Amino acid sequence: MPVRIPDTLPAAKTLAEENIFVMTQKRSIEQEIRPLRIAVLNLMPTKIATETQLLRLLGNTSLQVDPVLLHTASYESQNIDPQHLNEFYRTFDEIKDERFDGLIITGAPVEMLSFEEVTYWNELVRIMEWAENHVFSTLYICWAAQAGLYYHYNIQKHALKAKRFGVFRNHVLNSRAKLMRGLDDEFNVPHSRHTEIRAEDVLKHDELELLAVSEEAGPSVIASRDGRQVFFMGHSEYDQMTLANEYFRDVNKGLAIEKPKHYFPNDDTSAMPRVTWRSAANLLFGNWLNYCVYQETPYDLNELTAFERKK
C-alpha cells in the first residue's frame, strides 16, 4: 500500500523513480480505506532529504499512510526555502486539536547543548506532552530519542570523547519482541552523534525494554512495554551517501573529523560506501508502523483519549 503525499512534494519524484508506492491525495480519497495518520516533526536542517528518507520507509509497507509534515514555530530553519515550509509543512498550533495514529520526531544537530538550552525545547515539551493523549505511538530518532527519554524518564545523556560516527553492528536482545520480528540476530545501524544514553540507566526503568544494543555504539532500540513510545538511537533512515556527505562537509570546513567507521570499503574515502542497513531499516520502521500503530490504534481517532498513558 502507498504513502499518500502531495503531487508537488519533491520526495514524490524521487520515490516514484525508486518504485516506492506513492499515491496522490486525489486518487486516495476514492478509496474507502482509512489511512494511518502519521505526523512527522522534522527537526533536521536537511529537511527535504530527511522527509524523503522517512517517506521512503513509510511507503515500503503494506499500509496506507497519510503523513503530515511539521516544523517548529519557535525556531526558523536556515537551510530550507520558506516556500517549501509554507506549502508542505504545518506547525504544532495548527494541528494541536487533531489526533494521529503515530508521530515521528527526528534527530537534530543540537546534542552538545543541554536540552533546556535548545531554542525550541519548550515547544518540543508541549508536543511530547500533547502526544500522550493525541497520538497512539511516538517514534523518537537519535537526539529526539535522547530528548524523549530525558523528558519522560529523566534519563540523562552523556558527552562522548569523540563523535560516534559510522555504521555499527547491533545485537537483538529479545527476538520475541514485536519490534524485532524478522530481524537477524545482528543488524547494522548508522550513527552520527556526540552524546549517548547508557544501558544501565535504561534498565533502571521497568516500564522500558532495551531491545537491541551495540558493543561499540551502545543502546540502539528502546521501547516502552506498551509500545506507545519507541526510541531509535541511530539513523536507520539514512541514505547511502548521508554519512559521506557529513564527513566531506566537515573536511571541507577544516574541522577535525574521523572517517565514519565500518562504512567506506577498506576505509577508502574515494570508494562508494556500501549500504548494509537498508533491510533492517525497512523492518524496524515496518514493525513500528504495523505492530505499535496499525494493530493497536483505534479506528476512530477520537477514542484516543481513552488510551491516555499514565506517567
CATH topology label: Rossmann fold
Kindly estimate the percentage of residues that lie in beta strands according to DSSP.
15-25%
Topology, number of strands: 12
Total number of helices: 10
> What is the residue-mean pLDDT, rounded to a whole number?
90
Taking the alpha carbons of the first and last residues, their distance comes to 35 Å
Q: What assembly state would you assign to the polypeptide chains in this entry? A: single chain
User: Which homologous superfamily in CATH is the superfamily?
Assistant: Class I glutamine amidotransferase (GATase) domain
Low-confidence blocks of residues? none
Walk across the major sheet and give the strand order: 5-4-3-6-7-12-11-10-8-9
Walkthrough of the structure:
The longest helix is centred in the last third of the chain and has 17 residues, at 278-294. It contains 10 helices and 12 strands. A hairpin with a 3-residue loop joins strand 10 (208-214) and strand 11 (218-224). The two termini are 35 Å apart. Helix content is 30%, strand content 24%. The protein has a single domain, classed as Class I glutamine amidotransferase (GATase) domain (Rossmann fold), CATH 3.40.50. The model has no long low-confidence stretch (mean pLDDT 90). The chain has 311 residues and is α/β, with parallel strands linked by helices. It has a 10-stranded mixed sheet with strand order 5-4-3-6-7-12-11-10-8-9, with helices on both faces. Strands 1-2 form a two-stranded parallel sheet.
